[in-house]
Design goal:
Length: 351
């Protein structure tokens, strides 16, 4: 359930958002500013528990692009009754904001801060890394293997039949160049899917891949097989990609926690030095991530993953979202690293 109204936003200006909320019973609510059309960029979001007394949700945000038809949205994360009053989205007073002064670091920036996605070939067409353009010369320390044809549905298209060509190529590249790999563990093969006729974000080619596996033993076997093959070669195993988007993951949060728990335990059993990253929500997934923490996520991770997409803004526009997530992690006594495992600047902001 959601409520929405159109608002006008101006690029580079601070905007103050305010709304008063009251619920019949305590309920999870997201308040956000969002682009009304694709790619549905989220300019700002706050996730709160609305209580039975009136409370104001108020925050300010620097907007990354002009948008005369942006949406102010209130999303109810559960069934219930919610009262809304006195909504406002207005340019904010920038009093107290001044020029920022940056001091160059005394030491070179560590290579660990530079990561890359490398999608060198036509996805899902059967080509391998060797069939495509060379690996880029830009020096990076971390490579995330997403949209590279290495998820579960590619590796074990038929039960018990494994194809390792793409994954082995990436393992070789990383070993040759001293690159740390992030390998997301996700996308259920159609034969193992709890909903094999469900159409995912990838269309009909990978039917059912957004669903959880029908049999947890198939998930365990996948994890054991892959982690055993990659032992000592993959530094980070990551939970499900952008599970807050139903086209990537259509199961429940409780099932996602179960999948993450199995992944963490099996990785630590086979390759104890490898690190496990949480499922990584997309830019509007702060509330989703908080609910996972409420369900015990912290005990099954070594780091928190998130995708800090900034739309037409540059990387600086992610700063407020980073602070929002750090504050949320602190609330759950999670002192683990926060990784940006997927993002890209647009409209001329080149890295």
């Amino acid at each position: 359930m959601q409520f929405q109204t159109t608002v006008s936003l101006e690029k580079g200006k601070l905007h103050a958002v305010s709304v008063w909320l009251r619920a019949k019973e305590p309920m999870r609510v997201d308040v956000q500013l969002r682009k009304s059309a694709k790619p549905y960029t989220t300019y700002a979001i706050r996730s709160i528990m609305a209580g039975t007394d009136w409370q104001e949700v108020r925050f300010t945000e620097m907007i990354s692009s002009d948008d005369a038809n942006a949406l102010f949205m209130i999303l109810l994360r559960q069934v219930g009754t919610l009262w809304v009053d006195d909504v406002s989205v207005i340019p904010a007073d920038r009093k107290g904001f001044g020029p920022m002064t940056f001091t160059p670091p005394a030491e070179p920036i560590p290579a660990t801060l530079f990561g890359l996605h490398y999608n060198p070939f036509n996805m899902h067409k059967g080509k391998t890394v060797k069939d495509s353009r060379p690996f880029p010369a830009v020096p990076v320390k971390t490579l995330r293997l997403w949209d590279c044809d290495v998820p579960w549905i590619w590796l074990e298209r038929k039960k018990g039949e494994w194809r390792w060509d793409n994954l082995d190529n990436y393992l070789a590249i990383s070993q040759d160049r001293g690159i740390d790999l992030i390998l997301p563990m996700a996308l259920t093969p159609t034969w193992a899917s709890a909903r094999p006729n469900e159409k995912p974000i990838y269309g009909t080619y990978w039917m059912g891949c957004a669903a959880e596996p029908a049999d947890m033993n198939d998930w365990r076997n996948y994890l054991r097989t892959v982690v055993t093959r990659c032992k000592g070669k993959v530094k980070y195993y990551e939970g499900w990609n952008e599970p807050d988007i139903s086209g990537f993951y259509s199961g429940s949060k409780a099932k996602l926690i179960e999948l993450q728990k199995e992944m963490y335990q099996i990785v630590k059993e086979i390759d104890p030095v490898a690190q496990v990253i949480s499922p990584s929500p997309a830019s509007a997934g702060v509330g989703y991530l908080e609910e996972l923490f409420q369900m015990g996520l912290s005990q099954w991770i070594d780091a928190v993953g998130y995708h800090f997409y900034t739309g037409a803004g540059g990387p600086e526009y992610a700063l407020s979202k980073i602070q929002l997530i750090r504050d949320m992690m602190k609330k759950f006594d999670c002192n683990k690293p926060l990784f940006n495992t997927g993002a890209f600047p647009k409209n001329g902001h080149l890295l």
